[in-house]
Amino acid sequence: MNTAERPNLTPPKGVSKILLHSCCAPCEGEVLETLLHSGIRPTVFFYNPNIHPKKEYEIRKEEDKRFCEKLNLDHIDVDYDPINWFERVKGLEWEPERGARCTQCFDMRFERTALYAYENDFEVFSSSLGISRWKNMNQINGCGERAAARYQNITYWTYNWRKAGGSQRMIEISKRENFYQQEYCGCVFSLRDTNKWRTSQGRQKVEIGKKFY
Known about the structure:
Blueprint: E1 17-21, H1 25-37, E2 41-46, H2 54-71, E3 75-77, H3 82-88, H4 100-119, E4 124-127, H5 137-148, E5 155-156, H6 166-177, H7 188-200
Helix pairs in contact: 1-2, 1-6, 4-5
C-alpha cells in the first residue's frame, strides 16, 4: 500500500468548487479523492468524443458515472460527437502519441469544458488527464490554459496530480474499485497503433471490454 500522505490542496483563487474534466474512472479516482480530502467539491465533466468504438466509450462513461455516484458527486454527461472530433484531427491521422493530433484532441475537449465552466459559474477547471504517466503534462497544461484564456476570469489548474504518491494511489484505487482498465488511450488511431505493436510482439489485439481486476 502507498503510505504517502495526501496533500491538502488550495486551488487557484481559493475556490471551494471546481469543474473537473474526466477522461476515465482509473485516472479520476485519485484526483477526486484528493480534492474531497482537501475540502474541494468537484463537478465531473465527461466529454471525450475521441473514444472509439462506441462500445468502449459507453464502458468508460458508465465506470466514470458509477464512481461519481458512489462519491455523491455531480456528473455532467456531454454528447458523444465523434464526427466533429474526426473533422478536428483531419490530416493528423498518422501523428504519433503526444504529437499534434493529441494537441488538437485536448484542445477540443478543454474548449468545451471551459465553455461549460464559463456558462455555469465555475472559475476554475482542471482535468484528470494529467495523472497518466503516458501523457505529456506540458502539452496538457498548455491546452488547458489556452482554453481558459478564451474567457475572462476562467483559470485552468495545472496541479501535478502524479506527485506526492498520486500515481501509486491511482493504481490502488483502480484495483480497489475494480475499474475497467483500458489498454489504449482511446481514439481509433491509438487503437490501431496499439494493435500494431501488440501484433509485432506476438500478443493478441486489444479486446474491448476485457477487465483486469
